[in-house]
């Protein structure tokens, strides 16, 4: 059980392990379950330790690829001086602002496209064409249009968030079970009640999933936005690390991105899970 | 009194689903509708439920015309159609949200008790079996106290044992408020077990072929000789209704009553 508690971070899997262990008192069972997680850790941990050892023993210079201890040191010093929090705050603020706009418009336009065939015929081809434009391609244009400050960055992120949310919401509304709508009709729900009591709950799981992929894209676009000229933010930290020749700072910023992204996604999941507990699906771990 | 008057439904592609169907169902009567596929049974129910509009003719409940979904008409579909995000109790209460909370709770508790699902009130629909889900669906239709309850092959997806027990549950719920019931089925035994009258419909275009009265006290003994006789009569009418070439000059004249 010790091994499984350490390697399995999710409470649900912990509970499953515990139930398993209760069912079969023999320990090997949980060890077998834990093995995939352990196996997955072997390669990164071995690489990190190997690199650390190689640099310490003088077998490699570690100038361009610093050992884990130096990366951690860079991360720690950034955190201690408070610089890290300034940068994290700036990035998070941009992502959240862009995400809010993108999610709002994506949901609204997606709802219209899902509800009205005519709206879809008219707008969807254009939106699909715009969707296939790579994010970086917008950068010069947005700089011209909205200047080099926050506006252009937030709009770029909002554009990135908009499309997955739009697609997810439009698809979910189109895919609603006609039979459930008929139940609403039989009980004479008004238009608003139909939306609140049938449409919204039916669309909710797909909406949360769309928001999650939108947030993921928001983090991708914030890097593009911050690389195009910013004086703070994790993207600025990346660029600064490159210009100062400090790969440890670049890697520290990358790790900060990973943690921040995971954290934000975790918040969305935590909000969404109790709302979609009714679903008759395997508890997906996307 | 629930009256269907010269009801005709022609679809946009010209297909005639129903042609001049007349029915008059007494208050508290249980009417079964049987017939081969394509005889418009489901179309008839959808028209009465107000889900589709009739091409010609009229439907009235106690003289009030049915032009769309109406509080006096409840329907149970072939599938349970429960809302998966509501608990069993909330599903039953779905159609009576306008009622005061206490009244709503009383009705739900009573209905769930009648269908034997009182202890499942707080579960999700996905945790119930098909038969249990259909019981919830019947309870949901009946707590709104409709004057006419329509059932569209509600037990067709269930095994014989579950079906028989659901017949009992249905009759128990019906007993409480005695609505008029129209049940569409392809199971002749089910029709004879439940109904006061069995309407046999004839396909292409759908119309009433023959009406057979079954006068026996409920619950009915399926082993009684009369039960078998009634069943044979319905089967016989069904058989004749499906013969394409034969002319039926006066199809409903033979609606003699059957006693046992």
TrEMBL record, chain B:
The keyword Cell cycle does not apply. Residues 2-228 form the ABC transporter domain. Keywords: ATP-binding, Nucleotide-binding, Transport. It holds the Pfam family ABC_tran. The keyword DNA repair does not apply. One of its GO terms (molecular function) is ATP binding. Signal peptide: none annotated. Residues 241-260 are annotated as: Disordered. It comes from the Bacteria. Transmembrane segments: none annotated. Belongs to the ABC transporter superfamily. This is Nitrate/sulfonate/bicarbonate ABC transporter ATP-binding protein.
